[in-house]
């Protein structure tokens, strides 16, 4: 089936606008704006070519570039950037013909929020409380993939009224896994969503049934499928009740992250949680550990 390029463009544009709206929410959720958050926004904008010609985005880039020009950010300049972020956010939300009210846009907004929260490579109580509030307001997301896992995790770590470092680290990792942002490796976007993955101590390929989703570092899915089949496993096009493993590719694309890719993951989670199957969700890097050397 051929997809209209104009449809893809609009979907990607709307996805980036939704991301940006909530990235701004995330970085400002603790009422602070750090140097690392400003750098993150700058880098993310430079990677977001689809919306680079939007006048509001251009204004934001120009303001930040001007502030960063001398290498020093004064308190007044920091406040100026914060106000510009809020102004740009409001302007984008008022733009006509931008999807901000569908299920897909909800996921994109959550994805942006997670990006913004982890942009300073730290989690504050204010940020955790804001994430809790945001998810609580969104009934659809908190009951379904991918928001359900984050919602349950936030509620669990807040249950006793004390958030220790281990709990904070656990939530931070979940936000990184979901958002595809790993600032420790310099990646601001583009990693595949790994949030619902199972802990797997061993993986026996022989006789096991696999389903693949996403883009793979190893190459086309046909290449990965052949590797699995050569090791004695089988590969199906969709998740069924007899699927043993759903493998998420290590690369993502803004074209598909929450389309077929997300639906396969959601199907696997639903089947697993309802007891219909014992499918395990894993990632390409785990699969690679158990593939025989070529």
From TrEMBL:
The lineage of its organism: Bacteria, Pseudomonadati, Pseudomonadota, Gammaproteobacteria, Enterobacterales. It comes from the Bacteria. Residues 205-294 form the BRCT domain. PROSITE patterns: BRCT. This is BRCT domain-containing protein. Transmembrane segments: none annotated. CDD domains: BRCT_DNA_ligase_like.
